[in-house]
Amino acid sequence: MDVLTTPELMLAWSRARQAQAHRVGLVPTMGFLHAGHASLMDALRPQCEALVVSIFVNPLQFGAGEDLDRYPRDEAGDLALCEAHGVDAVFLPSVAAMYPEGFSTRVRVSRLTEHLCGASRPVHFEGVTTVCARLFGLTRCDLAIFGEKDFQQLTVLRKMVDDLALPVQIVPGALVRAEDGLALSSRNKYLSPQERLRALSLSAALRAMRDAAAAGEQDVSRLVSVGRGLLQVDAVDYLEVVDPDDLQPLTVLDRPARAVLAATVGRTRLLDNLALGPS
Ligand code: AMP
Predict the structure, then answer these.
(1) What is the structure's pLDDT at 279?
(2) How far apart are CA 120 and CA 123, in angstroms?
(3) Which of 66, 125, 127, 227 fits a disulfide with 113 by CB distance 3.0 to 4.6 angstroms?
């Protein structure tokens, strides 16, 4: 497994692989890797000949007062996990290498980024789309996989690729949970044992909404009440039922939909989501 720390090395590596007609697959991450990230590697591995994982805690996608400075890191553990999952190259750039002096481009997808997480994190998605556009350029990837865990992010990146006609296929990866139902996240490390117990109420609320929908409840406000009634969190950022393609809120569950949830437990903001309704 190659470990590449500069954009120049990354670009040369990908060009050499593509010269051999290898498809390059990219798994973009911020590190502190867990089984959710590993599942993305495993899903992409059979679809490409050259599998790249990028590890970069991207300052552009953190707002003031967010957790950029304390975001968990474990470079040795991350490299071991990548190696164990058959990764060919890890791209591990510094902030100065990703955003050299004079870097002045921002990529912004409008509308889709203005509600849900975008309402409380106004700079977040612009940071995500900007870093992903640069990662796509540096890795020349043919495929890039993103987890459904970050459902809005996946939708926004699909839109960016579509609007800009970028030659990258976006592949969705299923959300991976701990055995007790908690959606895996690097930020789960912040939770105390008591907070982690309360965090289980996120997935419990979504399951209750799914069960109510399966039992015939189609009124979205009643479904949301079912979910809210179970949450044991300190603040609910949003709990909505949206169309999975354009993320517009639904009032009646008359088509496949996604329940999407963001809530804070202690100081930790957690996300979860679940498919609802007729498939
Ligand atoms: P992050 O390192 O949190 O920026 O996540 C990197 C990628 O892993 C993103 O595409 C996430 O959606 C994905 N990811 C994170 N957690 C999970 C999970 N529990 N299941 C599936 N994918 C995940």
Answers:
(1) 57
(2) 9
(3) 125
